[in-house]
Design goal:
The strands form four sheets. Strands 3, 4, 5, 8, 9, 16 and 17 form a seven-stranded mixed β-sheet that branches. A six-stranded parallel β-sheet has the order 12-11-10-13-14-15, sandwiched between helices. The chain is globular and about 60 Å long. By secondary structure, the chain is α/β, with parallel strands linked by helices. β16, α11 (327-335) and β17 form a beta-alpha-beta unit. It is built from eleven helices and 17 strands. α3 crosses α4 and α6 (221-228) runs parallel beside α7. It has two domains: 2-132 and 317-346, Quinone Oxidoreductase, Chain A, domain 1; 152-293, Medium-chain alcohol dehydrogenases, catalytic domain (Quinone Oxidoreductase, Chain A, domain 1, Alpha-Beta Complex).
Length: 349
């Protein structure tokens, strides 16, 4: 089979012919039809310690059909269309059993880092990681939904707890996760203030439901937010960029009792700048603020997200697709912050 293979930290991926993997007793072989491409993979392949061994096939937002199942697999059948959960969890620890599998105490790592991922024609995954795709949802949409839409689902419902009438600031609103965060916050009843850099990203955020757009280059972000909220600030800030400037601005932009939700960050090892930020505990205490980390999603939340896509209440915003062999071009666009919306691979065969 064809696959894009990583041979070392930060190296470019190479198109190679490799054997089709064989599923073990509790595993499933999937013919990959689409795979989402986002900042997570770009950071993962360049961060020391994330990839457990080389060579490795990256990619974790997979959609395709089941080709073969292991002898112990009960919940999945050949021919079924599926997507996947990103984390390799045990399913037995206290966190897994309480619905917090992203904090698995015996985690083996991530798909595309601790096992081969979806930048290939076939992938083998544990039965535990498989999520069925409902009818009416395309492969590309399902692949993107497994992370770039499911992550906003979790962030808005469980962390920011967005409700009707809440003012919500989305930082990085025009990117592959941010554009779906705008839609999800609106679906929860929020009034969405979308912040990003670049006219194309701001226009895309406006198109997909932002009530107000804020160009972060045109003045201090918190001041712009206060001007749009009658001086009060927002009920929640959802920061997808996660650098020092955005995080500190996000705290300033919060209303009394507001929540700062961190979705992602750009590690110093990859981007050179230290993302650490200053937090005044007295200010936090007296304003009654909350700080949340939003660490991916549960498998159940992926299924719920796919249902929202099926019902056309959320739309997967995929602005560019690439064939498998062009994935490095997609990565370079992401590194240069030259994309709006999500990118996906479409894998023919």
């Amino acid at each position: 089979m064809k696959a894009m293979v990583l041979h070392g930290l930060g190296q470019p991926l190479r198109l190679e012919e490799v054997p089709v993997p064989k599923p073990g007793a509790n595993e499933v072989l999937i013919r990959v039809r689409a795979c989402g491409v986002g900042l997570t993979v770009v950071i993962l392949v360049a961060t020391p310690g994330r990839v457990t061994s080389y060579p490795r096939i990256p990619g974790h937002e997979v959609a395709g059909e089941v080709v073969e199942t292991g002898s112990e697999v009960k919940s999945v059948k050949a021919g079924q269309r599926v997507t996947n959960h990103f984390y390799l969890t045990c399913g037995q620890c206290a966190n897994c059993r309480s619905g917090r599998e992203t904090l698995c105490l015996s985690s083996r790592g991530n798909v595309g880092a601790a096992c081969d991922g979806g930048y290939a024609e076939y992938i083998v995954l544990p039965e535990r990681n498989i999520v069925a795709i409902p009818g009416g949802v395309s492969d590309v949409d399902a692949a993107v939904a497994s992370d770039a839409i499911a992550t906003p689902y979790h962030a808005c419902h469980k962390e920011a707890r967005v409700g009707p009438g809440d003012d919500v600031l989305v930082i990085g609103a025009g990117g592959g996760v941010g554009i779906h965060m705008v839609q999800m916050a609106r679906l929860c009843g929020g009034r969405v203030l979308a912040s990003d850099i670049g006219e194309n990203k701001l226009a895309l955020a406006k198109k997909w439901g932002a009530d107000e757009v804020i160009d972060a280059r045109r003045g201090e972000l918190a001041q712009q937010v206060k001007a749009l909220t009658g001086g009060k600030g927002v009920h929640a800030v959802i920061d997808i960029v996660g650098n020092r400037q955005t995080l500190e601005a996000g705290i300033k932009a919060l209303a009394v009792g507001g929540k700062l939700v961190i979705i992602g960050t750009k590690p110093k090892s990859v981007y050179k700048d230290d993302p650490s930020f200053m937090l005044d505990p007295g200010d936090f205490l007296h304003r009654g603020l909350e700080l949340h980390s939003s660490r991916y999603v549960t498998a159940a939340e992926i299924a719920q997200t796919l249902e929202l896509v099926r019902q056309q209440r959320i739309t997967a915003v995929v602005t560019q697709t690439f064939p498998l062999e062009k994935v490095e071009e997609a990565h370079e666009l992401i590194r240069n912050n030259a994309t709006a919306g999500r990118i996906a691979l479409v894998i023919d065969g």
